[in-house]
Write a structure and sequence with these properties.
The chain has 346 residues and is α/β, with parallel strands linked by helices. Helix content is 45%, strand content 15%. Pathway: Porphyrin-containing compound metabolism; protoheme biosynthesis; protoheme from protoporphyrin-IX: step 1/1.
Length: 346
């Protein structure tokens, strides 16, 4: 009797992206690719081009390059996002190397290198039976998960022979993801902080409003529950993550604040993290413990924006310390999360 052939699976871990270096030219190239994505800035083509290439990049590239240089310096001369994504890939591969499954793990960036085009071409040549598209964003948003899956499917759709495809849409409430963040918190004495903040990457209001065929995000109970209508709403998912974290950390709702960072203008999800930090300092708070659960690898938004800028602003107003809780990065419990999500799709 002929032995059944073992199926081969390729896993593609996708992160947002990073400049190739903190030089002005490389940062400009990265921002041009990132901000011209219609899922990131969802304006009509000409309006988006005028805004991004005529206003945002020319006026922000010098300052952005300076901030990326600070990030590189904080991280030993490398992009931490790239470093930790490579580490996750290696550690996840080691998990499957110890099993009978024929699984190969790849990684790519949605913007810049390693590009999705080059990595998926390598995967095409491997002739996998199945490809699992795995964006590394816990919470579903069109500007992150949506654009990563869209590009992967667009590339694969041009292949003459198309394998079976599976996707990971979110993992905001996965127990191992929550556990990894709780484990990170054990590095700190949580009782020694006046305030606790869960700071998530912001989104324009119109991005979450587009989730709903009728009505707005504000019409839904996103702060308190996940239901059939809001289950793919970024705002509902981040609040669900916060509730799960608070439960494991033994926090009451009055013990913490949910806020949103990295906004481009005022029509974004509120409250704004920097304004909350400012308010707390003026109220006399001295020590803040800040989580940033939307990021599973430390990056500019965690190490610089929270760890440096918020801390400096807080101190200037009389506070003592804004302490960043590190991202899940390559914590073993987070690799458990990745492994479990892949196994569910084998």
């Amino acid at each position: 009797m002929e032995q059944k052939r073992k199926k081969r699976t390729g896993v593609l871990l996708i992160q947002l992206g990073t400049p190739d270096s903190p030089t002005k030219s490389d940062v400009k190239t990265y921002l041009n690719e990132f901000l011209n994505d219609p899922r990131v800035i969802d304006y009509p083509y000409l309006k988006r081009k005028l805004l991004v290439n005529g206003i945002i990049i020319p006026f922000r590239v010098k300052e952005s390059a300076k901030i990326y240089k600070e990030l590189w310096d904080l991280s030993g001369g490398v992009s931490p996002l790239l470093k930790y994504t490579e580490s996750k890939t290696k550690l996840l591969q080691e998990r499957f190397d110890k099993t009978e499954e024929d699984v190969t793990v790849h990684m790519a960036m949605r913007y810049r290198k390693p590009s999705m085009e080059s990595v998926l071409e390598e995967m095409r040549k491997e002739n996998y039976d199945k490809i699992i598209i795995f964006p590394l964003f816990p919470h579903h948003a069109s500007a992150t998960t949506g654009t990563a899956i869209e590009k992967a499917v667009k590339i694969i759709s041009k292949w003459w022979v198309m394998p079976e495809i599976s996707t990971v849409n979110d993992f905001y409430d996965h127990e191992a993801y929550i556990d990894a963040m709780v484990e990170r918190t054990k590095e700190f004495d949580i009782s020694s902080y006046d305030r606790i903040m869960f700071s998530y990457h912001g989104l324009p209001d119109q991005h979450v409003d587009k989730v709903y065929d009728d009505g707005l995000c504000t019409d839904q109970p996103c702060e308190t529950e996940i239901n059939q209508k809001n289950k793919l709403c970024y705002k509902a998912q981040v609040y669900a993550t916060t509730r799960a974290l608070a439960d494991k950390l033994g926090l009451k709702e009055s013990d913490y604040t949910v806020a949103f960072q990295s906004r481009l203008d005022k029509n974004w999800l509120e409250p704004f993290s920097d304004k909350v930090i400012e308010k707390w300092a003026k109220e006399g708070a001295k020590r803040v413990l800040a989580f940033s659960p939307a990021f599973v690898a430390d990056c500019l938004e965690t190490l610089v924006e929270i760890g440096v800028e918020y801390d400096e602003d807080f101190r200037a107003l009389g506070g003592e310390k804004v302490q960043l809780v590190p991202s899940t990065n390559d914590h073993p419990r987070f690799i458990d999360c990745l492994e479990d999500l892949v196994r569910e799709r084998l």
